[in-house]
Amino acid sequence: MDYFDAVVLGIVEGLTEFLPVSSTGHLTIAEQLLGLEVDDPSVTAFTAVIQMGAIAAVFVYFWRDIVRIAAAWGTGLVKPEHRGDYDYRMGWFVIIGSIPIGVVGFAAQDLIRGPLRSLWVVAGALILWSAVMLYAERRGRQTRGEDEMTWQDAIIMGMVQCIALVPGVSRSGATISAGLLQGLDRVAATRMAFFLGIPSLTAAGLYELKSVGGVGVGPTIVGTVVSFLVAYASVAWLLRFVSHHSIGKFVPYRVVLGLLVVGLLSTGVLTPT
Predict the structure, then answer these.
(1) HEC states along the chain?
(2) pLDDT of residue 11
(3) Per-residue pLDDT for 149 more than 80?
């Protein structure tokens, strides 16, 4: 991998990590087009590591919220009278909601690195999960804000987040859809999707650091920095977008991209891995 490849993949990661279009799916497609070996362990590790740039963007964008929640959580641990505070509960919501993907991701890592990296899987997931997103928009009542979130919301969103281990589903698309179906409004569901991504993507990136040596330190740093810069703008844009628009607006793009990948695979322009 050279620096041009790293910049391109950093842009793709930053643009797509938090949009409901699947960053892993887009990265897999981009790696194929760049002529990289998609199933090479170092390329797979690079994909996970540059996600930390996108997560750093979330830290910067939401740093006031994160500091407030962390402080309230820590205070509540030692002072029972503060355990009714929303920020204290939000801290636990993020922790509890992050456990399922940690367990499933570790247990299924060979499957995730292997068969699920196929572009046939990416194409199918892009198309099929689009139907779930439309259903969530149409059936979700969207009557509750972030301050009305419950343990059930956090647990269900955390469990559904595991489905996003399938490339093409989209972690944000999965968690936002789950939040909508629980009755949360789009902004609340989207913010929770961001917060749930912090532990899972950080853990995945740190875990894969040991395997990224084949790519090189320089390209990895460049890809991560580019991912951070692009993701920061993406986070700000998405929060404004979902306050006025349905996530169903992303469905036509997902379906067209999925069908395009199927066509390119069928004609031999792209190979599955």
Answers:
(1) CCHHHHHHHHHHHHHHCCCCCCHHHHHHHHHHHCCCCCCCHHHHHHHHHCHHHHHHHHHHHCHHHHHHHHHHHHHHHHCHHHCCCHHHHHHHHHHHHHHHHHHHHHHCHHHHHCHHHCHHHHHHHHHHHHHHHHHHHHHCCCCECHHHCCHHHHHHHHHHHHHHHCCCCCHHHHHHHHHHHCCECHHHHHHHHHHHHHHHHHHHHHHHHHHHHHCCHHHHHHHHHHHHHHHHHHHHHHHHHHCCCCHHHHHHHHHHHHHHHHHHHHCCCCCCC
(2) 96
(3) yes
